[in-house]
Design brief:
- The longest helix has 38 residues.
- The protein is elongated.
- By secondary structure, the chain is α+β, with helices and mostly antiparallel strands.
- The relative contact order is 0.09.
- It folds into 3 domains: 63 residues, no CATH class; 150 residues, Beta-Lactamase (2-Layer Sandwich), CATH 3.30.450.40; 223 residues, Phosphatase 2c, domain 1 (4-Layer Sandwich).
- The protein is built from 10 helices and 15 strands.
- A hairpin with a 2-residue loop joins β4 and β5.
- Strands 2-1-5-4-3 form a 5-stranded antiparallel sheet, sandwiched between helices.
Length: 465
């Protein structure tokens, strides 16, 4: 339905009744009275339409947990609600000076480059000091005005309201020059004040959300190990939390040198994303490391012992993982032996850019499901200067995309960076610029280059199981 009662569609029965009633009143009361009534109804309908847009803006703000995006939403909503040409939100620091500027109707970055941030004096200073709405019909004639800096659009009228968060002025929301050229009115001020009041709550929620997300990420990272020096092997790891939700995840990685000289590596993912997932991840990681030290045997045997240990828990505990032993035979080279418990397959990237997906037909189910089922082991020679990549499913999963497509994309990216420094390879494969639907853990192990005159897996080894 249109906001204008004279544009209501005939199919709207209520609108038709209102229009008919107004026509009847007009015939009885005369032309002057009818026009006045018509104007009142028009204003009422316009006010109801603006109220609906205000409520829509408040609902949208409450769902936005990114502070910067929220501030832009507030400026855009205020400009739209009041039909202003220009809008701005100046964020204040603890000293009362402006620290940031978000705009509508004018390019914020260009404005800051040419004019700098707003100054806390003049009309804006009055708004900061009074903490009350400010309405000016002629900016140039106001005695508090100090003019506009070079490069700033010249504005004639101004409406500003403070944004407060927990009793402290967070910033100022101000609009300039209505599109119809009229001064700002009482109802414009009331509408913007209502928006600012709701915005203060949304800003506080967004700040709390970001603090929670930061604390959650810090807790998760502190539970992950510091990787040891495993020279001549090189090892790098990365962890990235889910992009949207501040949740504790169960993704982890580990790498350690075993008593028999082999290197044990694992990447895993505990089922669930709640307050219990991260501590449980730590328990499983520590149990697996202890079993690997104790047994020094094939990864399948180690994970089988983990399965049996988890069966002693009162509640079911499930996790996917890839556990591997990297062994070195002098004069021969390196071999990896691994077992897969329902996890995405590792990738083997050779120095020439070839990528093998280590996904034999026979693989195991997640740990903690059925300890009676066997844990198959597989092995493959690691060519000189090759890189073994283990990762959790968050790296290759995207909404609306098949996980196999994500795996192919990852393989292509890794192939293009086959000879890049290991830290650069990891940085390129997992970055904060990507949006992750789930936590991501990545572990990369690089085999040294071939010794001079030596033969090794680069010439002899072929994948096997």
């Amino acid at each position: 339905m249109s906001d204008d009662p004279w544009l209501w569609e005939p199919a709207d029965e209520t609108a038709g009744q209102v229009a008919a009633a107004l026509e009847e009143i007009g015939r009885r009361a005369g032309p002057g009275s009818f026009e006045e009534l018509r104007a009142q109804v028009r204003r009422l309908a316009r006010g109801q339409g603006r109220l609906r847009r205000l409520l829509d803006a408040v609902v949208a703000m409450s769902a936005d947990m990114d502070t910067r995006a929220l501030l832009q939403h507030i400026v855009d909503a205020g400009t739209d609600l009041v039909a202003a040409r220009y809008g701005a939100l100046g964020v204040l620091g603890e000293d009362g000076d402006f620290t940031d500027l978000i705009t509508a109707g004018v390019d914020a970055e260009q404005l800051k480059a040419e004019s700098g941030l707003p100054q806390s004096h003049g009309l804006l200073g009055s708004l900061i000091a009074d903490r009350r709405p400010l309405r000016v019909d002629d900016v140039a004639a106001d005695p508090r005005s100090v003019g506009f800096p070079e490069g700033h659009p010249v504005m004639r009228t101004l409406l500003g309201v403070p944004l407060t968060v927990r009793g402290t002025v967070y910033g100022n929301l101000y609009l300039a020059d209505k599109e119809d050229g009229t001064p700002f009115r009482d109802d414009d001020e009331a509408l913007l004040t209502a928006l600012a009041s709701a915005a203060g709550v949304s800003i506080e929620n967004a700040r709390l959300y970001e603090r929670l997300k930061g604390a959650t990420e810090q807790f998760q990272r502190r539970m992950l190990p510091v990787l040891p020096d495993l020279a001549p092997l090189r090892v790098e790891a990365r962890y990235e939390p889910a992009s949207e939700l501040p949740r504790l995840g169960g993704d982890w990685y580990d790498a350690t040198l075993l008593p028999d000289g082999a290197v044990f590596v694992v990447v895993g993912d505990v089922t669930g994303h709640d307050v219990e997932a991260a501590p449980l991840m730590g328990q499983i990681r520590n149990m697996l490391r202890a079993l690997a030290f104790d047994r020094c045997g094939p990864p399948g045997l180690v994970v089988d012992r983990l399965d049996r240990a988890l069966a002693m828990y009162g509640e079911p505990t499930a996790a996917t993982l890839v556990a591997a032993r990297i062994e070195h035979e002098p004069g021969t080279g390196y071999t990896v032996r691994w077992t897969n418990a329902g996890h995405p397959p590792p990738l083997l990237v050779t120095a020439d850019g070839t990528v093998d997906v280590l996904a034999p037909e026979q693989h195991g189910i997640p740990v903690g499901v059925d300890p009676a089922l066997p844990r198959p082991d597989h092995s493959v020679a690691l060519p000189w200067a090759s890189t073994l990549l283990l990762f959790t499913d968050g790296l290759i999963e995207r909404r609306g995309q098949d996980i196999d497509a994500g795996l192919r994309q990852l393989a292509a990216r890794a192939a293009a960076l086959a000879t890049a420094p290991l830290h650069a390879l990891c940085d390129a494969l997992i970055t904060r610029q990507d949006a992750y639907d789930d936590d991501v853990a990545l572990l990369a192990v690089r085999v040294p280059a071939a010794p001079e005159g030596g033969r090794g897996p680069a010439q002899e080894g072929q994948p096997g199981s």
